[in-house]
Amino acid sequence: MPDSVMTLDMLPVGKNARIVAVDWASLVEEEALRLRALGVDVGSKLSVSHRGVFGGADPLALRVGRMTVALRRAHARAMQVKLLENGLESGQ
Fold first, then answer.
1. pLDDT for 56-65, tens place per residue?
2. CB neighbours (10 Å) of residue 55?
3. CATH architecture of 5-86
């Protein structure tokens, strides 16, 4: 995996990224549909606003467009993101 690609649960707070792949089969169908309805899908730009303070650091608060979406770490591990630098894909 290139340095700029990681699972969403590893994205540092405040860094911008684009979702490049999602393992939808690893998620419960209803949860996958809900995430897609909220705009969490391949191609979406997002950032991690906050992480939970207890135990496994659940939930993650994602900024997707103008919305904040809470996401479990297990769901975030099913998503690969590419780090964006200054709003552009790294390496461009």
1. 567 899 999 8
2. 6
3. Roll (2.30)
